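Input structure tokens:
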């Protein structure tokens, strides 16, 4: 087969970039001079490339300005569909259902988002963090030129260890590793204590992200029932631990479980820790929401009850302080060295500027004042949302009343399917989390999780009325 001439090869190269969206309509094509330099071609070849692209109708020459990408006349871009169909076949191996829901939800036509567990951006102390970032950069111009340590910034690790004392939890600073959110912390914990094929137990329902992590690590999932009142069902866990299947690890969110919002009583926490130690099952504690509990006295952690170094503690600032900074941490006790090495091989240390900026804020009394204010605001928002849901949703709907956080778990009358509800809501630009994705066992299809992170407003009220109407129209 004849090789096409050089100018055509280059024209095809740019055509591919336009088709794939790397070069977008309205953007400038590299100048003739740059093209000659980058591709080592002559002036006439570079000019021919532009002519070829013009002939294809994808390039427009603007006098004294340059060559710009344009939409070809013959192929007008189709208007985006409001709600793309869920195609689970694309995500085989990483929890297809969850991926398809998340992908469909990224659509630009979303107007009201009830699927998020975050607070609205204006509730976070963004101006203070921005000021701290600028101050930090100004005071140390070399900051970005040096690689941070694998375990993270020492000052931040000290602050986290000191803050944990309030919940009577001992985390030695030198045994804390700063991570990319709780997601990386839990990944590291699981990789440290399991091998592919092992069985890991989780609460049911559970945060879908945990199911995704487990699947991506080729771990078998065992679901243990949990209630919105006291969390994990210890009797059910005990039966499973005594059963034939060896459970290598158990992931539990003891304070403000996602999606239930449950809080385990102290007696249950103590019993759970003991039970896991007796059965040699590593307990991975996910304390993502601990600081959002509506209480002046911090609740105890599972780590507090740990006498045998069998609890790996994971937490995050992504819900409480700054989702954009992606800061989390893990305290892995006797597995610390292994976790540190896994972190090093996986992603090295986390970016240091954010760590310094949050440390600057967290070491002041303003941080505690901010958290107190945030908790009060969320209490009001949860109350308003839950009242509206009770008013607008069909008779037979019930809503949880968690003592903190941003999430409500809503049980619909059994005739409703949350996946159908999700699709219908998406069509009118409203995003919810269908209950089905919080389990591998199809047990929660008549539930939805509703986020209350945003201040109540006429827009939110209208969206909840619309959701109620969709449900009532479904019968
Ligand atoms: C229970 C739970 N664990 C972990 C995560 C992930 O946390 P991060 O964003 O810090 O990675 C979430 C996020 O929603 C969560 O709800």
């Amino acid at each position: 087969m004849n090789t096409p001439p050089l100018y055509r090869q280059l024209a095809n190269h740019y055509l591919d970039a336009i088709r794939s969206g790397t070069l977008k309509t309205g953007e400038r094509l590299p100048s003739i001079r740059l093209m000659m330099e980058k591709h080592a071609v002559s002036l006439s070849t570079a000019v021919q490339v532009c002519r070829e692209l013009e002939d294809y109708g994808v390039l427009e020459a603007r006098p004294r300005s340059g060559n710009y990408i344009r939409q070809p006349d013959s192929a007008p871009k189709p208007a985006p569909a409001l709600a793309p169909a869920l195609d689970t076949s694309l995500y085989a191996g990483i929890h297809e259902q969850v991926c398809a829901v998340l992908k469909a939800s990224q659509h630009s036509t979303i107007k009201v988002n009830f699927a998020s567990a975050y607070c609205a951006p204006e509730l976070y102390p963004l101006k203070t963090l921005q000021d701290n970032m600028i101050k930090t950069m100004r005071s140390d111009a070399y900051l970005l030129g040096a690689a941070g340590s694998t375990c993270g910034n020492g000052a931040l690790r000290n602050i986290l260890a000191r803050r944990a004392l309030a919940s009577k939890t001992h985390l030695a600073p030198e045994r804390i590793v700063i991570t990319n959110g709780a997601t990386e912390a839990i990944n590291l914990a699981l990789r440290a204590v399991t091998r592919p094929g092992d069985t890991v137990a989780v609460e049911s329902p559970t945060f879908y992200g945990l199911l995704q992590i487990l699947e991506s690590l080729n771990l078998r999932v065992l679901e243990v029932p949990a209630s919105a009142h006291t969390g994990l069902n210890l009797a059910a866990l005990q039966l499973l631990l005594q059963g034939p299947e060896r459970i290598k690890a158990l992931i539990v969110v003891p304070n403000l479980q996602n999606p239930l919002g449950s809080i385990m009583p102290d007696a249950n926490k103590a019993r759970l820790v003991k039970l896991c130690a007796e059965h040699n099952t590593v307990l991975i504690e996910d304390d993502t929401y601990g600081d959002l509990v509506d209480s002046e006295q911090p609740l105890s952690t599972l780590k507090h009850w740990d006498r045998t170094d069998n609890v790996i503690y994971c937490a995050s600032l992504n819900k409480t302080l700054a989702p954009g900074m992606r800061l989390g941490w893990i305290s892995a006790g006797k597995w610390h060295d292994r976790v540190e090495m896994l972190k090093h091989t996986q992603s090295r240390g986390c970016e240091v500027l954010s760590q310094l900026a949050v440390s600057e804020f967290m070491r002041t009394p303003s941080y505690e004042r901010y958290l107190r204010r945030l908790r009060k605001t969320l209490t009001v928002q949860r109350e308003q949302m839950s009242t509206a849901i009770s008013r607008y949703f069909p008779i037979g709907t019930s809503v949880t009343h968690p003592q903190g956080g941003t999430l409500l778990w809503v049980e619909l009358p059994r005739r409703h399917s949350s996946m159908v509800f999700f699709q219908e809501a998406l069509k009118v630009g409203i995003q919810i989390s269908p209950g089905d994705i919080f389990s591998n066992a199809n047990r929660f299809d008549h539930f939805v999780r509703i986020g209350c992170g945003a201040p109540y407003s006429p827009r939110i009220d209208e969206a909840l009325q619309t959701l109620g109407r969709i449900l009532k129209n479904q019968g």
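The chain has 15 helices and 16 strands. The longest helix spans residues 365-392.
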